[in-house]
């Protein structure tokens, strides 16, 4: 976990986007283990990004771009996905961001 606390009062937008990228990397590691390798991933279907947000913060999609851009870089066209980017009052362990991945594997 790269950062704890709400965005933007304790964590900047840029750091939160980096945390989303790191969370996507962590998710890819779990995905690789479960699928028997990233080469078995046919498509990233959906990404859910939850951002611990201060009241009035509306840039959750900009935070989520950290995860989405990485997945598209790694998987190319197969990394294009549906996405939800939502604000939350709190996340487990005080994380500033949480990322979930849904993938199709062969």
Task: Tell me what you see in this structure.
This protein is an alpha+beta fold. It is 37% helix and 26% strand. The protein contains 2 helices and 3 strands; from the N terminus they run H-E-H-E-E. The chain has helices spanning 13-35, 60-75; strands at residues 41-52, 82-88, 97-105. Strands 2-1-3 form a 3-stranded mixed sheet, covered by helices on one side. Strand 1 (41-52), helix 2 (60-75) and strand 2 form a beta-alpha-beta unit.
Brief synopsis:
The chain is α+β, with helices and mostly antiparallel strands. Helices cover 37% and strands 26% of the residues. Helix 1 packs across helix 2.
Give the SSE map:
Elements: H1 13-35, E1 41-52, H2 60-75, E2 82-88, E3 97-105
Parallel strand pairs: 1-2
Antiparallel strand pairs: 1-3
Helix pairs in contact: 1-2
């Amino acid at each position: 976990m790269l950062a704890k606390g709400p965005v933007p009062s304790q964590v900047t937008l840029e750091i939160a986007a980096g945390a989303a990228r790191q969370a996507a990397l962590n998710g890819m590691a779990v995905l690789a283990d479960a699928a028997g390798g990233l080469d078995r991933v046919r498509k990233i279907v959906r990404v859910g990004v939850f951002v611990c947000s201060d009241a009035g913060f509306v840039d959750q999609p900009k935070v989520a771009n950290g995860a989405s851009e990485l997945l598209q870089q790694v998987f190319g066209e197969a990394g294009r996905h549906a996405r939800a980017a939502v604000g939350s009052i709190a996340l487990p362990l005080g994380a500033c961001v949480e990322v979930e991945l849904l993938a199709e594997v062969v």
